[in-house]
Structure of Site-specific integrase:
Amino acid sequence: MARPRTPIGTFGVIATSRTAQNRYVVRTRYRDWDGKSRHVQVTADTRAEAERALKKKLAERDLFQPGFSGMTADSPFPALVSYWLEDMELEDRLSRTTRLLYERNMRTLVLPFFKDVTLREIGVARCDYFLKQLAKQSYNRARQARVVLRLALALAVRHEILPRNPMDHVSRLRRPARTPDVYSWEEIAAIRSGIRTWEQREVTAGPRPDGQLGQIVEVLLGTSARIGEVLAIRLGDLDLDAPIPAVRICGTIISRKAEPTHRQDHPKTARSVRRVALPGFALRAVRARLERIRFTHPDALLFSTRIGTPHTTNNVRRQLRDVMDRAGVPDVTPHRFRRTAATAINEIGGLQLASELLGHSDPAITREHYIRRNETVNPATAGYLEQAFGQAG
């Protein structure tokens, strides 16, 4: 019959001896965090002091066990950051883009504030103060910092470096009131006119515009897709001969440092994969693009450079901004077309339909970030109130 093992954190008989200097040495065997038994000893002037010191040492060893990282609560915060980044790579649950974003936010927003403190010194008050100070500068920065700080400290808790996560008790960040910015009908007309003028201008040097910028804008407005999703549309994603012509949104364009720009085979989330019917203006833009396209393989991109490589989202944003500055239309961004289309669908077809078009998992996200609230109350209320109170007195 196998002999039962003593629990982790258990120590054996305390043995006492005296040194040549007439000091007391007490020792015992302690079953450590990895299951192995090790000798632990201390030395003091008296036997009672030595036994008290040994028990204190064992209690501290039991409370703050070194995890597989080799860290303790007295380790510096930068050590946890390195361990957390390594753990994200090993877990491989997040996309490469998200991991790089988290690393950037940690190094630029969080690490400068906590770089000189140990993990034991990071309490609720310190975290709360840090987030409030950052929120004074920018709500979005504070929100991004909160995410990565919580994740790193949660890893320390899971690996028994810390007993609790102080981020669980910080006060909520208050989002400042903001109305989603959308284009008016007049602004849409001005944007189309400005792009048309730029594409038809006389060009004395360099290649002539090939019409892609205007076509990209029409597809953005006609699908409510993200700019990366529009640039990732392949010829095989188009179904223009169906009774209702449509496009399948199923990828996005990725540009990372030290990597070539490429198409990712899925958009931001799994729910973002969707098949969107094309309105007439977007369908005409797609057909016009197909008439000039050089590459006809189903995997070829609908919008691409002259050699067939993907456009970067930043280049399209920059070109759109430059063209609109010439046309005198400020603050034109691809994402505003997404909010504009969602607002129009919400007003005509309702919130649920707008959320489906955007590819959101929760209509509350659509309502909070993408829909401009219509302030006009149905004028029928005036007639009803007249009927109720107009004849009184």
Q: What stands out?
A: The first strand starts at residue 15 and ends at 18.
